[in-house]
Amino acid sequence: MATIHVDGQDYEVEQSDNLLHACLSLGLDIPYFCWHPAMGSVGACRQCAVKQYKDADDERGMLVMSCMAPVKDDAYISIDDEEAKTFRQTVIEWLMVNHPHDCPVCEEGGHCHLQDMTVMTGHDRRRYRFRKRTHRNQNLGPFIAHEMNRCITCYRCTRFYQDYAGGEDLGAFGAHDNVYFGRHQDGTLESEFSGNLTEVCPTGVFTDQTHSDHYTRKWDLQFAPSVCHQCASGCNISPGERYGDIRRIENRYNGDVNGYFLCDRGRFGYGYVNRDDRPTRPERHERTQATEAAATLLEIDDALDLAADGLRDAGGIIGIGSPRASLESNHRLRELVGVDNFSSGIEAGEWARLLRMQQLNRDTGLATPSLREIEQCDAILVLGEDLLQSAARVALSVRQAVRAKGVAMSEARDVPGWNAEAVKTIAQDAGYPLYLATPEASKLDAISAGTLRGAPDDIARLGFAVAHALDPTAPAVDALDEITATLAQRIADDLLAAERPLVIAGESLGSMQILEAAGNVARALHRRQKAQGALTLIRREANSVGLGLLGGESLDWALERLESGEAKGVVILENDLYVRLPAERIDRALAQASSVVVLDHQRTPTWARADIALPAGTFAESDGTLVSLEGRAQRFYQVFDPSYLRPDTRIRESWRWLHALAATLERQPMETVLLDDLTEAVAHSAPSFAPLAQNAPSALFRIHGLKLAREPHRYSGRTAMRANLDVNEPRAPVDVDTPFAFSMEGYSGYREPRREVAFAWAPGWNSPQAWNKFQDEVGGHLRAGDPGIRLFEAPAISGDYYREIPAAFTAREGEWQVVELPRLFGGEEMSRRAAPIQARMAPATIALNADDAERLGIVADDPVALSLDGATFTLPARFGAGLPRGVVGVSSGSAESLAAPTAVGGERWGRVSLGEANATGEAQP
Amino acid sequence: MSRILQSASERQADTHPLTWRLHDDESPVLFDEYRDKGGYAAVTKALTEHTYESLTEEVKTANLRGRGGAGFSAGMKWSLTVKGEDKPRGYVVCNADEMEPGTFKDRLLMEQQPHLLIEGMILAGFANRSKQGYIFLRGEYHLAAAAIQRALADARADGWLGANVRDSGWDFDIALHTGAGRYICGEETALINSLEGKRANPRSKPPFPGQSGAWGLPTVVNNVETLCNVPGIVNHGADWFQALSGDLSDDGGTKLYGVSGKVNKPGLWELPMGTTGREILDRAGGMRDGLTLKSWLPGGGSTGFLLPEHLDLALDFDTIGNTGSRMGTGLLTVVADNQSMVSLTRNLEEFFARESCGWCTPCRDGLPWSVKLLRALEAGEGEAGDIALLEQMASDLGPGKTFCAHAPGAAMPLASAIHYFRGEFERGVAHPQGKAHADPIPVGSV
């Protein structure tokens, strides 16, 4: 720690910081542009000038850029110094020379860092009287709108895009006052993280195109703290709603998890909430014609009565839960049907692997790291996961881990890690070692120290070989080829040399052997005194981990119960069974059921098969708890009440429907149920859930006696926004479940520490940089602690190495091993229903080894017919980069018919041929 | 204009180490002649008598100050460069991107005597344990490029470059890189970025190039003239070098001085460091007929204007620095009484605004605004407050406020022009006839 004297006040600050960081962390305001807490200092904008004095007696002092000035003990600085203030005003004046005065029509207005900083400096008069420089804008694809005239040339965009996120197609062009930030030509931005440009850009150059299509100012949006449902990473989001639609997703800062950044699937995949075809009323479907037209709309009570009657008549009932539904909803379903009758809704193979992953997180001795902790790992082995596709935000953290080598190299030379350009100069291409073993090449390969391209079994063998190289008591791999053996030794050496080695594997390739190999590596690391190492296991869906902890039976079990007639009634929670197992198998099972009740927020084939279908809320219309892949339980809060603006809607939280259905079934009067009751019930249901009781503030939580506001205090139009329905303004909806109010009334400040922040705002700070005010130190943790609570118990080591090592993969004649290749855009069920994602996603393909394709006479884009488990589907061909012979890769989420059983440890083999030219392509939702 | 105007008889080996071999007919000194006239003897001496440390020490003692304009001690720069048995070998880079307005001295040295530069670079490479040298040459210098390419080939053929230099067991080679025409590449870290194929933005210091330069390795960047002084120092010693300037200056050595502008004989002269502006102007034959000297720039566009009264000052780094200007490259640009200071300044600022890399705000957005204000003054369309605004800008573009020295360099002529010739600027503000320079200076005369 060091003492600095700022305008006559003494403060204790971190010696390793720069002055800007230190002062902002103290809550002092200094304007800045090019500096960013996650990207460090480059000294380009010259906005953060302060006066620094040699000592207490120095009265002249000199201007320094606070972002480039290291904290020195006993330093005397002044922010209020007249020369410093004038210079900062001058810098803003220069930045404004070419900046258009288009705030009223600019979509950044109201959450614009440039506006905030301009006001902060006091610059309010234009002296520049000449023509402004203008640029042409580019079409950057469905996510990002481009307005270069607003650019103040802070270089944050390219620094984020290239340095932080590894993108190559956005750069700086030109020179002097004609610098252009864009692509070499119009075209969709290729990065998986382009959406962060909208928050990184301090003004309106890069704005959210999906928001633009239904634009609302930040101050007119209603927000809630939420959690992204589009993968298992558990990123915190702040969705904004107006007129019953989600208008945009902004990052919600969580210092342990996503920090300042989201992936584009999470940010732009919200459109399924707004779809016109969403069910909003309960429906009764006639079995004879299960089409939408045949649906009868019901009122709530009728629907509940009919559903209860049907289930009662059916006799034995089972419940099928869902890894995309909350713990509370799944738990409520399990209570409804009884523990012995509950299925997780996950296909048996994946379910077994999920439970195995849970076991590995518990018994290999290595802890599961948060994303922040991943960024501190200094050697990483990834087995089987194409992270950019399967858990993109994790990939971004892995990239930061690799880059941290440059920071270490710089600090060894007394160049501080925050000095970003200096770190780049010193680091050049150096990085901590990252090894990637995947069937196909990925963009992360560019920063890897070594890669293996192989079939799942070969990837597993590499893992087993690494474990053996680490610890000779781990089983050895038979007949290992020389290249893999050498690679395994190199990986083992690097993992051993590291302070915090990290092993990553997961569900992508559906291989139990890969998970067991990763488990062996983790166990071997622990035996070699690397207990501070870490193990990350990627699950597929937002609440896969929660379901694993909750327990239950597989989906296959549920279908067998129906087919065998042991159960005649089934309640299906937010789960489209048709994406999990082949259609004819689902059809057969459901046909045996006498009563099928489905709760969901989308029209799916499963919804269509329901006798009674109940409209559930999405994450935006309900609250609950999800458990992310690091075992972090996080509550998401309802953003808006759908019935306020659309009185006809009967959308309810699934857990509320299930509570009501239970009461109706038991012919009991329905007692009020609150979210807290259910969360507490989950907490009591198993020891591993016990921490949930402390996870979130109860509905009674107040600050200064106030509920927490979902709307900024400038929220406008409440009296008018519903006037088309009724000139009398009804009472604002009451949120009985949480401490948040559907109102601008309530606490929205930053001074009182709180973990649950609907939107970041502080006086003078309207942009996302307002998060500064909520953090213990800028870029650190929220002062009240980062949201969420970890449910994985402290790691322990027990059990022994897995010893069943697969034989090396050999290509078969006339048959191909089919692996599913994860796809960030289009590979996830819900975001795939959002139009911007559909516009962005690469077409689904069948990837083939180039030699295989040549032998089959297939060229790129030819239709390829794949016959798998008796079904055949056709997709265009693509040559998979590095894909081994004898393996074909099918884009995930590309065809319902791919939903196929992967019996525990099983493999899928199919036949490939040149298909019909006009065969079915990708199914559109 | 890039010609030496001293006769061969004046240019003797012991007094004119940079130019004594040059031919009166300006034809290049080729390898054989260069060798015959003592060329590469310094390399032989260094390889046999010096260690890299002692050679660095020799240059440091000689107090050879950087001839690119900044005047930083070359020996000091070398001694701050990371080197040693256990250290990675880096690069020595010759900054030959001579784009300073009014400067044409390096061009002469490279076109007519490239071997002197190559010899200096080999010595610098030896002193810094470099593995490779680069000459970053201004792209327009195609004659120099050809001369250097030939000289490199000849030196390589005779074993002065390449693997195992003159059987010393030491490897060193030099490559020529021609620039694409950006003034900012004269800034050493921007030069390195450009050499690496990146945007020519200056880098953050620290790390200095001596710690982490080209491709992350220790890198020494020296100006052409600086490097050309090294063989003489090695051959004759630091004391000899110091004595070259006699009592004229604390700085040792000779300097290639020059003059451009409305003088009778613009050109170059190798003279002792500390020679006065008056002597140089005399050698240039004085002002052209009917003209009198109004002002002069001592060493390029990025130095401050001086007055005739400053002509008797010694032209060295410290003396000129004390006037508030800089010696810069030591090539004088003279301004005659019929030239407009406003137009001249506008012309310079246009250059600097155009050549800004666009990295930091004051330079990127301040300089173009100053140009527009100067154009307004030139057209008699200035407004009250414009001159104060220009003065404030000149101050806000000063050292410490910008990322590199480009904008402070641009601010120097601006601030000094207003300081010494405020009246000319004032005539551009709301002039009754709408003309800034109705009398006595014609508009737009640069």
Label this structure with key terms.
heterodimer; A: about 900 residues; alpha/beta; Ubiquitin-like (UB roll); Rossmann fold; 6-stranded mixed beta barrel; globular; B: about 450 residues; de novo design (two linked rop proteins); 3 domains; 4-stranded parallel β-sheet; 4-stranded mixed β-sheet; about 40% helix; disordered C terminus
Written description of the protein model:
The complex is a heterodimer of chains A (925) and B (446). Chain A has 925 residues and is of the alpha/beta class. In chain A, 27% of the residues lie in helices and 17% in strands. Chain A has a seven-stranded mixed sheet, sandwiched between helices. In chain A, strands 31-35-32-34-33-36 form a six-stranded mixed β-barrel. In chain A, a hairpin with a 2-residue loop joins strand 12 and strand 13. The longest helix of chain A has 21 residues, at 392-412. Chain A starts with a strand and ends in an 11-residue tail after the last strand. Chain B has 16 helices and eight strands. In chain B, strand 2 (132-137), helix 7 and strand 3 (173-178) form a beta-alpha-beta unit. In chain B, helix 2 (41-49) packs across helix 9 (224-236) and helix 14 packs antiparallel against helix 15. The longest helix of chain B is centred in the last third of the chain and has 21 residues, at 406-426. The interface between A and B is large, with 44 and 38 residues.
